[in-house]
Structures are given as structure tokens and as C-alpha cells.
Amino acid sequence: MNETLFSQIQKLFERTYAQVGINLEDCLINRTRCAQLSMLAGVQARELSELARTFLRCADDRLYVGIYYSRWLIEQLEEHDPRAGLGDRNIRSLIMFVEELNHALHAALQFKRGVREIASEDFVRNLELQAQVDTYLVLLLFVAFFRKSQRVSASDRRWLRFHLFARQCPDAFRDANLRGRYLETSQLAASYTHYLDTLNGVRRVDEIRRFHSLDYGAKRHRILALTRDAFSGFEFLFSTGRHRQPDFEFRFAGANRHSDRGLRAAKLRDGSRDRSASETDSRCR
């Protein structure tokens, strides 16, 4: 059976970090369920995108996860499958697709490590920062796959950064907390990915695995420290020209279409179905 885009990206993240233990496609929910959970999520949810959302809730020492993709978003990815080529027509859709999957995956991994404070602002910012970093790396892999040299040019990187970072408009949020959240995490992610671009493939994997294991405060401290180090060494790097483009390797199983089949929610701990509207997720990412 051909793999879906969703399952391929989940496996890519799991190879990089750790196994989640469930198929996150079983956590997909439909539009009706998304509307119900958005109402439970509170006022802030009204300002978040209606094209894709992730819902999380802890109860009885279990994590409940719901991932929503709008029909429009799925249709865009079906019509312009990024496994057949990445361009202006599908990059925004792919970013949203990857980020929501990434939120669910890292929430699950943190839950397995014993983290239960999913309602805290630091937890949410941690998911957002990690998702932007991981999405940038996924986009690099897509671009490199379609380059004969398997290398990504400086213009490619500028294009990716424009769509992932520069196009964000945190000031558009009326809620001050949302403005602060997305402004800070996008700035941190942009800075950190600049640092990752200076590393070769092996060092980059080691670095992002260490980064993934940190809480939000530690991630923020590391990025700020790297930024200071980069400025202190800038003159030396400029004078010697020491900079290498990292190597990439990524293989796709084919350009099959992604489908939003089996829209349903699932419990993380035992994989059983969550059929009760009152039992499930009440916080939106």
C-alpha cells in the first residue's frame, strides 16, 4: 500500500527523534469535531487559522489529541502534491500541514517523558518553536530532493525563509499573548535555523536532537547564546570565508496523493477511540 504524505512525514520525525507509539493519522478529526473543540478551547482559538488546528487535553493521565485539516487544505495538497515538486502553489499548504503534525508528535513525546503541564504558555511556545524549526528542515529536504546536486542554494533558503518566517504577521493578533507568542517563537526559530545552516548533516542531526530534549526556557537560552557567539565570530568567518552548505539526502516513496481518510480522534495511551465529545480535547494550538 502506498504511504500517505502524513505517514511519511511522521516517520521522518520519528526517525529523527523517537517513536510516538501510535499512528497519528488516527487522531485526525473532521470539521464538525473541530468546531466543537474550538468552542471549548476559548476566546483565543477564534484568532487562530481555520485551515489547520491541533487540540490537546490531559485527563486521567492520558493525552487526547485531535488534528484538523480543512477540506480546502487537503485538496490543495492533492492537486499540487509537494512530493512531485515544491513551489509557490503549495509551500504554504505544506507548512501548515507539517506544523500541525509536528505539534501533535512533540506533545506526545513530551507526554511520554512525563510532561503534564500542557496548558502552560511555555509548553505551547515550546511546541510552536520546535514546529517552525522542524518545518524549515523538512522544507529543505523537499527542495534538495528536486536538485540534481542534492544541495540547496542561498536563493532557495531565502525563498523558504520568506514563506516560513517573513510572511508571519504576529501584529495581526488582537490578543497580546498570541502576538508575543508568535513574534518571539518566529524570531527564535529564524535565528536558530541560520545556525543550523552552518552545520553539516551529521552535526545538524546531533544538534536538533539535543535541542529537542530541552524545555522552552533552555531552548531560548541556547538560541540567544548561539546568536551572541555568531556575532562574536562574524568577523573571523567573513575574513576566512569558512562556510559549507550542508548535505541532504531524502527519498520519497512516490508521488501518491494524500487523503484525509479515516477522520477520527484517538487516545494516545492505548490507541482506543475517543467517541465522547465531553471527554476530548479542550485546548487549541
Short characterization:
This protein has one domain (5-242, 258-284). It is 53% helix and 8% strand. It has nine helices and five strands; from the N terminus they run H-E-H-E-E-H-H-H-H-H-H-H-E-E.
Topology:
Layout: H1 5-16, E1 28-29, H2 31-41, E2 52-59, E3 62-69, H3 71-79, H4 91-112, H5 121-145, H6 154-166, H7 176-196, H8 201-212, H9 216-240, E4 266-267, E5 283-284
Parallel strand pairs: 1-3
Antiparallel strand pairs: 2-3, 2-5, 3-4
Helix pairs in contact: 1-4, 4-5, 5-6, 5-7, 7-9
Question: Could you explain the architecture of this structure?
Answer:
The structure is a single chain. With 285 residues, this protein is an alpha+beta fold. Helices cover 53% and strands 8% of the residues. It has one domain (5-242, 258-284). The longest helix is centred in the middle third of the chain and has 25 residues, at 121-145. The two termini are 32 Å apart.
Cα(first) to Cα(last) distance is: 32 Å
Which assembly state applies to the chains in this document?
A: single chain
Number of domains: 1
Structural class assignment: alpha+beta
Descriptors:
8% strand; single chain; alpha+beta; 5 strands; 5-stranded mixed β-sheet; disordered C terminus
